[in-house]
Write a structure and sequence with these properties.
The protein is mainly alpha-helical. It has three domains: 3-66, Multidrug-efflux Transporter Regulator, Chain: A, Domain 2 (Orthogonal Bundle), CATH 1.10.1660.10; 69-102; 105-245, no CATH class. Helices cover 70% and strands 0% of the residues. It has helices spanning 3-10, 14-22, 41-56, 71-102, 110-116, 118-121, 126-158, 161-176, 183-201, 215-226, 229-245. α7 packs antiparallel against α8, α7 (126-158) crosses α10 and α8 (161-176) runs antiparallel to α9 (183-201). The radius of gyration is 30 Å and the shape is elongated. GO terms for molecular function: DNA binding; DNA-binding transcription factor activity. This is MerR family transcriptional regulator. Keywords: DNA-binding.
Length: 247
């Protein structure tokens, strides 16, 4: 029989048959004088066996070419692997459920996605909300659990009504500053931002910096690609003065 007939009888595709040949789990048949592969019933048995074991969950690259007498050991190993997969899928379903319950997008962990939803609550301009979301994604990934816990704590505080009103206004003002903004206006924005942050997180111990490694430079690079020079200068000034106030 030819490959098409073999594939049809086995319930697979011709491409699958070729893949089996490529990874070495199905022996190549002899060829007819005109160059076509000629399969026999032995090949059909082998393909059916491969298909059955693959459907059970065995990895194709681990399938033996000959009958394996140590069935129990192989099945025990497969059972352990399937149990681990079930655990992973159960955990994934829990995350999906949390995301759906919180009404947040899936690109952040649920606990951070819920906090990120505060950006809408404070009326953050869309461009600034996107910047903050991407920065949070970078920080949570590169800073690990410690950074994630800090983000959660900070956003819980920013959810307080007084903070919501203050930071909503500050975000709007920050979004529109540029080289034409008067120096006095920039100074006022810096001062009010510092006072708002201190009032919100002043009792937190922020004296021990996060060990971000290369993440810090990446966060700076990301910010520089989204903000104008005036905004970057204002952020630097806010950061420098905050480091003195929160010691």
């Amino acid at each position: 029989m030819r490959s098409g007939e073999l594939a049809e009888l086995a319930g697979v595709t011709v491409r699958t048959i070729r893949h089996y040949h490529q990874i070495g789990i199905l022996e190549e048949p002899s060829r007819s004088p005109n160059g076509y592969r000629e399969y026999d019933v032995g090949h059909l048995v082998r393909v059916l066996r491969i298909k059955r074991l693959a459907d059970l969950g065995f990895a194709l690259q681990d399938l033996p070419l000959d009958d394996d007498a140590d069935h129990d050991a192989r099945l025990e190993s497969l059972d352990e692997e399937l149990a681990a997969q079930i655990d992973r899928l159960t955990a994934q379903r829990s995350v999906v459920a949390a995301l759906r319950a919180g009404g947040v997008a899936p690109d952040l962990p649920p606990e951070l996605g819920v906090r990120m939803a505060l950006a809408s609550a404070v009326g953050v301009p869309p461009r600034m909300a996107r910047l903050e979301r991407e920065q949070m994604l970078l920080l949570a990934h590169l800073g690990g659990e410690e950074a994630s816990r800090l983000i959660e704590d900070l956003y819980d505080r920013f959810a307080e009504p007084a903070a919501v009103a203050a930071f909503g206004t500050l975000y709007e003002q920050f979004d529109v500053i540029d080289a034409s903004t008067p120096t006095a206006e920039l100074e006022r924005l810096v001062s009010e931002s510092i006072e708002a942050v201190v009032a919100t997180v002043g009792d937190l111990d922020l004296t021990t910096p996060l060990d971000l490694g290369t993440a810090e430079s990446l966060l700076d690079e990301h910010g520089a690609s989204h903000l104008n020079p005036t905004q970057l200068r204002v952020l630097d000034e806010i950061g420098e003065r905050l480091s003195q106030r929160l010691v």
